[in-house]
Every structure is written in structure tokens, then in C-alpha cells.
Amino acid sequence: MKFVIIGGDAAGMSAASRAKRKNPDIDIIVLEQTHDVSYSACGMPYNIADPQRDMERLVVRKAEVFIEKNKINLLTGHRVTAIDHAAKKVSGITIEGEQFSFDYDKLFIATGASPVIPDLPGFDLPQVMSLKSLEQGKQIKDYIQQNRIKKAVIIGMGYIALEMCEAFEKRGVKVSMVKPGPVFLPWLSPGLADVIYEELIHKGVDIYSGHAIQKIEPLGNGVRVVCTNLTLDADMVLVAMGVKPCSGMAEEAGLDLGISDSIAVDRYLKTSDKDIYAAGDCADAYHIVTDQKCWIPLALIANRAGWAVADNVTGTHTRLQGIAGTSVFKVFSLEVARSGLNFKEAIDAGFDPVENSVKTRSRAHGHPGSTPIHINMVADKKTGRLLGAQMVGKEGVAHRINAVAVALHNKMTVEDFSQTDLAYAPPFGPVWDPLLTAANQLVKKI
């Protein structure tokens, strides 16, 4: 069997490695348009923050390891431009400009996602950058170092934008954030969003919501970001307005698209063509709470889906349950986490939601170092089922959210969750864990 994989990052290399382990005789060809494979993209903001750390430390495995140790035909610098599913062939061009084509028996599209870049004047200036690939991370880090950047504008206020606020601050760079939308963090409960807002203000970050971006102009060695009723001067601009699935080639090949124009797949990761699979940031998935299609580009599902594709290609039928959208990120001293649905998402999914917010402590009463934890929890009023939770705090948030994820996967009610036997010791939490306190209070509203 000839198994061709387009894309050599999380989903692609997970599938290639697992398929080779399960069937050493399989002929695997991985086509990656860059020279970087298998690296920790999520670690880039923290690496940029430290001028002493080499960006290469984020590489988990170099291409040579896959080629020499795993015997995978990994071809970097090969950009696939077309899929001919009738002829079962892919074609493209190398970085050197040479044409290539490969036949396949099974094809796996793992093309990931790309940054959203507005089609506006000035977004192609050399001072304007985005952060998605390792090469872009190196570019940003080198630019800060070589140009002694003192002032940056971040367009957007999502995960990457907030993480890069801290990275810039640690490098001595003054940050202004701006976005067209009027609400600071619309996906987060307002009370919890306020906690993050105050943390950013305390750290000297200027926040401008509700200002549509009109253009970016050159200004000496720097740039000027021109917005509605606002202009911001800076040495550089980071565009962090989210990402979009790299699904254009799949669409041109006639494959069905799903949520947010991601590639539509079934629970076995098959596309509308039985011999073509897709997974990772370019493909949709099923949400375990709603049982509906969703597009949530996160690292774990990319790796897990890559394994599942390898299983299905090599003859072991593997079906994915779905995802809860569990995520966590750090912004200065705060940990921010979520799993499942927020209140609005629950309404949109057809539930009759009820929510409650609590503020409790990260450690037992009287134990030194205790800090506030803010929790918003959502349930379905008709069934009592837990639908999701969000948490913000200085400690004890990142790993607590995993308990919510497990409860969601098991479709627990809030009352059942409130009876779980969670661990207690004064340095780690109160007798009544913050999640139990949140659940106990929410039960009263159901």
C-alpha cells in the first residue's frame, strides 16, 4: 500500500509514525512544504520571551530521525498544490521550483491552519508579522533582537495575542492591543474576563476594543496602525486574529467542507472520498457535549486523530468519541482554562442552560499563599447535565479543568459531579474543592 500524507506536523507525523510501527512494509510518503516537522508550536510565545533559549529547542524530532530511524520517506520543501482524486494522484512544486507528483492508495490531508490576515493596505509590510509556524517564530524573535523593538501593536485578543503580551513584556516591549469587536473576550464569562482585563492593565498593556482596522502605514523604521477613531504607532505589529483551516486544496478536489470551511470528516476521519482522510487543524470534529460537528483546532485532537487515521489505514477500525474543546493558556500571573460549552454556545446547541459563577480560594483557609479562583459553570436545566466550565486564577486552574473534561466525556449531571471524591490537602485546595463549590451552587439553580 502507498500511503501519502500532506503535512508533516502534529497530525501528519503522528499518523506516519504509527502506521509504520503497525505495518513496517507500508510505503509512506510525507510531503511537507517547510523544512520544519514535529515541533511544539504552543511553546513559541514562551521561547520568544527568553532571548537565551534557541528556537530549535522546540523541535521534538528532526526530519532526519523520521527518515533514518523510522524509515519514513519524508520530503521537506515539497508543497502540494493539487489533488486528483479520480486518478489518485497528488502534485506540487518544491522550494527549488521543481514539479513533482505521487500516486497513492490512501491519502491523508493534514495541512493544518493558517493565520487570518485581513486584505487591507499595509499588512504586507516587513514590520507586520503573524505567529503560526516555527519559521514565523524565528522571524519574530530575530526581529525583536536585531531591531531593539520597544513598542508593539497586537491586532486581536485571542490565545496567541494574550500569550504574546507576556512575551513582549518580558522583552521590554510596550504592548497595545486592538480589535474590531466591541467585547474584550466574548467567549468568556464577563466576570472572568474582567479579571484578565485588570491583569493586563496592571502590566501596562493598553487595550482598545471596538476599533475597526483600516490600514497600516509605514512610519520611519516603524509603522502606524490606522483604526476607526484611533491611530497606534509601533516598531512592529503582530497579527493575531485567529486561524482558518487550510482546506482550499481539498475543496478544489471536490471534497465536502464543514464548519468554518474545514474539511468534513466522519468519526473514522474519512472525507467524502473513501480513500482520503483528513485530521488536525484543517478538519472538523464531533463535540462530545452536543454530538454536533465543530471546528476547534487544538494540539491533542490533532495527534489523537493522526493515530486514528493510521489505525484505519492499516486495518484497525478506530472511531473517535469527539472533543470537549478543553484548553488552557497563561497570561502573566493568571491561568485561564475552559472545557465544554459556555452559556451562549449552550443556547445555540439547543439546550436550556443555567449558569452560576463563584469566587473561592486555591488553598485551604488560613494556608499561606492562597489566591482567588473564579469559576463559571453551565448546566442544562431540563436534564441537570453538566455542559461546561471556565476558570481563571493564579494557581490550581490548569489541571483542575481536566476533571470537568472527564465529567463531560461521561455525560455526568452537575449533581453527580458534586458528589465526586476529589482530593484535599491544605497546600492544594480547600476541603470543598473549588469545582465542588461551583457544582453545589449550580445544583441550587437547576
TL;DR?
The chain is an alpha/beta fold and 446 residues long. The protein has helices spanning 10-22, 44-49, 63-68, 134-147, 159-170, 190-202, 248-252, 299-313, 343-348, 401-409, 414-418, 434-443, and strands at residues 2-6, 27-32, 73-76, 78-84, 89-94, 99-103, 106-109, 113-115, 128-130, 151-155, 174-179, 206-209, 213-219, 222-227, 230-234, 236-239, 243-245, 276-278, 285-286, 293-294, 327-331, 334-340, 353-361, 372-380, 386-393.
Notes on the structure:
The structure is a single chain. With 446 residues, this protein is of the alpha/beta class. Helix content is 26%, strand content 29%. It has helices spanning 10-22, 44-49, 63-68, 134-147, 159-170, 190-202, 248-252, 299-313, 343-348, 401-409, 414-418, 434-443, and strands at residues 2-6, 27-32, 73-76, 78-84, 89-94, 99-103, 106-109, 113-115, 128-130, 151-155, 174-179, 206-209, 213-219, 222-227, 230-234, 236-239, 243-245, 276-278, 285-286, 293-294, 327-331, 334-340, 353-361, 372-380, 386-393. Strand 1 (2-6), helix 1 and strand 2 form a beta-alpha-beta unit. Helix 1 runs parallel beside helix 8 (299-313). The longest helix is centred in the C-terminal third of the chain and has 15 residues, at 299-313. The chain is globular and about 65 Å long.
